[in-house]
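dude i think i finally got it to work??
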Amino acid sequence: MEESEVCSCVADIANSFVCLAKRSARESVIYQTSLMSALIDGVYEGDVTIADLLTHGDFGLGTFNGLDGELIAFDSEVHQLREDGSARAAKMSQKTPFAVMTHFQPTLRARLSTELSKKQIEKTINDLVGSENLFAAFRIAGHFSRVETRTVPRQEKPYLPMLKAIERQPKFVFEDVSGTLVGFRCPEYLQGVNVAGFHVHFITDDRRGGGHVLDYTMLDAKIEVAKVANLRIDLPQTEDFANATLHSDELDIAIREAEG
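look at this
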């Protein structure tokens, strides 16, 4: 689809959203454990449990110790999306080396029964939030003609840097499927701290499959969006984190390649 067609379609989509109870973006907080740059460098073990995460929010995404699949959370339920494309409920005792959580308080909502691409939805969210300098959290629950995902395989010590670890990551395509997308849009100036741009995970309604989202086409879904202006970061107090290379000239390229 041409850029002009995307923009025209997005203008119509945006008019479908209704404002919920008035909330300032400053009322919402994103909690984050560790840094994306640490994950890129191979820091795959943290001390924060799933139970700990749920004290900071009911909605989010991340990964598990050992880079053992993807993490998706909403409605205070946390699932592990595994390297074979399956999903299972996470145990409260499992730990994460990197995760992002918030108490999801959407300020905009729409029910759309129109075929929309990932590109169209992202453009809509950007326009609704208005500023590229704020965070956005969003949830899309409904029916999709196609969702393409990948899931990182569990790693064993000695850990390789993430780009090496994901060289053979499996990819999956879910077709004619109902499920939920959980995502964040992070400002570009925080690349390395978080993932600049859109970071999205998916799980099917039957909770049997999902993964890190590469692409999707939505057919009919409820979309909820929240602006967020606060970020809290807890840094690991581990030797691996203390010795990690957290900044390099190639960091931006590495994150974009790793996160798709």
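The CA atoms of residues 49 and 95 lie 4 Å apart.
im so relieved honestly
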